[in-house]
Amino acid sequence: MSKITVDSNGRIAVPQQVAREIGSRALELSSHSAQHLFLTSPDPGEPVVLSGILGELGVADLLSFFNMFRKTGVLRFYLVGGTKALYFQQGEIVFATSTFPEEDLGEVLSALGKVDQETLQKARQSVTGRTTIGKILVDRKVVTPKDLWLASRNQVEAIVYHLFAFHQGSYSFVAKILEKEEIVRLSMSTQNLIMEGLQRVDERALFLRRIPSFDLLPVPTGEKEEGLSPAEERMVRLLHQGRYDVRTTLRRSALGEFEALKILYHLLEKGAVRLEEAAEVVIDGDLGEILSVFNGALVTLFRRVSEKNSGFEQELRTFLRDLPQPFSYVFRDISLQGDGAVDGTRILANLAGLEEGEKKRLLADALSEVVYMECIAARRDLGVSESADLIRRVQEISRRVKTLIGRSE
Q1: Largest CA distance in the chain
Q2: Does 73 share its domain with 157?
Q3: Which of the four pLDDT bands, split at 50, 70 and 90, describes residue 404?
Q4: Domain membership of residue 356 as a residue range
Q5: Mean pLDDT computed over 181-187
Q6: For residue 408, what pLDDT is reported?
């Protein structure tokens, strides 16, 4: 959380990201004390009536409050890794949205086994401000309207359930009528979602004590496979098809993360499956060279900019989090390494299933976005003269990569 001070003239300076979001809108002081300031943008149609930070007041408390007092409006959460919005109608949650890549509707459809990743990526290229991924897939007859409705419900449930794992972050509630909102209204019980969400937090903590890392490989032992439930038998058959890490196994199961994690946990407890460390993967060929070239530039830029701007690492993490599709898909589950490089093995796992040429194009385009952002930061924090040579050397990357993926200048 950024620290802000009030100078002797009563002025405050907010972080650049906050300034960009607010823009030139006027703000008014709605509430204050010796310990807080509450500034809002005056909008009689959508007033911010509640704002705060998670901590003593948790997610369950907030949802119970809005349910008990039958509130209508949008409750937004600002969390590490993304944002979420819950839509309330008379105290009941009727819809939810999220910027977390794994909670994207396309990813939910994929996790449910309704669409493969290659088809999903091609459909995403047609997404516009007015055309959603769901409508495109239905129009192309890839999924049925019923599939889409079920996926939307699963998506909302996942967005809510995953909220209970967060104990830090902030929130705001805007009181507004939802009739004008272009949302799929679902009939859901807020109280049931709260109870299920709390239970899942406890159960998931138990599962993760047995499965400490999603990078481990679940491998069938060939023993104790009799007496398994049908769902457990299907999971074992899936594991016999190839060596996948836990993360990929959960996605390939078409069960949703929580249910698949529960089944995997029980298989481990029964001794039908064991966990192994993944062997170090050497990335060769054009993909390996593209990653190597870009990572070299990212490390150089990261080191130089971080020397001048101690908050650059968090700025970069936020940038990766907020990238639009399909780039957010490329960086799904990616943690920035200490030197500013990205994990090539994880990225290639995200690109699995695409054609080789599509992999190279998407990889180069996604990494170009990051390099471009870091070049802008370098010019901002280092100054034009100090950053000129650095940026010139980095620009050579584009020319090298274009050759690798077969593009002309």
Answers
A1: 75
A2: yes
A3: confident
A4: 285-404
A5: 81
A6: 41
Q: What is the average pLDDT score of the chain?
A: 88
Looking at the whole model, is its pTM more than 0.90? no
Packing angle of the helix pair 356-382, 312-322 (nearest 10 deg) = 140
Please report how many Cα atoms fall inside a 13 Å half-sphere around the Cα of residue 281, on the Cβ side. 18
Q: Looking at the domain assignment, is residue 9 inside a domain? A: no
Is there a single domain that holds both residue 292 and residue 186?
no
More confident residue, 381 or 352: 381
Same domain, 172 and 238: no
HSE of 227, CA atoms in CB hemisphere, 13 A: 7
**In this structure, is residue 36 part of a structural domain?**
no
Q: Once rounded to an integer, what is the mean pLDDT over residues 289-295?
A: 90
Domain total in the chain: 3
Torsion of CA 106, 110, 116, 122, to 10 degrees: 10
With a CB cutoff of 8 Å and minimum separation 6, the contacts of 18 are: 2
Residue 35 counted as domain residue: no
Query: What is d(CA 349, CA 353) in angstroms, rounded to the nearest whole number?
Result: 9
What DSSP line would sit under 337-363, residue for residue? -TTS---HHHHHHHTTTS-HHHHHHHH
Q: Which residues on neighbouring strands pair with residue 37, listed in sequence order?
A: 32
Report CA Rg, the chain. Answer: 23
Query: Looking at the structure, do residues 242 and 355 belong to the same domain, yes or no?
Result: no
pLDDT, tens digit, for every residue of 57-75? 999 999 999 999 999 999 9
CA distance 331 to 366: 8
Taking a C-beta distance cutoff of 8 angstroms, is the pair 352, 252 a contact?
Answer: no
Span 252-256, mean pLDDT? Answer: 87
